[in-house]
Specification:
single chain, five-stranded mixed sheet, mainly beta, about 0% helix
Length: about 140
Amino acid sequence: MFEKFLSTIGIGSMKVDTIVDQPRLAHGDTLSGTIYIAGGQSDQVIEFINLEVFKRTEGYREDSDFDVTEDCIAKHTIEMIGSVKSKETRMVPFELMPDERWDCKDDSIKLYLRTSVHITNAVDVHDEDEFIYAKDLD
């Protein structure tokens, strides 16, 4: 089902890709990967990058047709030093350790990794993709 996890953010001509090593994690595995930052046509200053793991529950309620709730269960901030130069590529590895909050016992609950890029004097942008964390990966 999930062969590859790729979250891509385009900011002008700069591109930020978050690639997870294993989009299907067994209980006890670490969520790890690399953020690739490809510089655009000009230098840009990234203040920081946030990685958030959150649970999204989707369902139906009587008072509305569709209901979505999100619960942030892990957060990791990567402080950037200096600017991303034009045409430069940076690689930033990351690791997040799961805990009991990551367990999803209900099929209506999904786990997502959201990457948010905060740029000096610009609009903050984000992208997200689903991954699986389970005791058994059959």
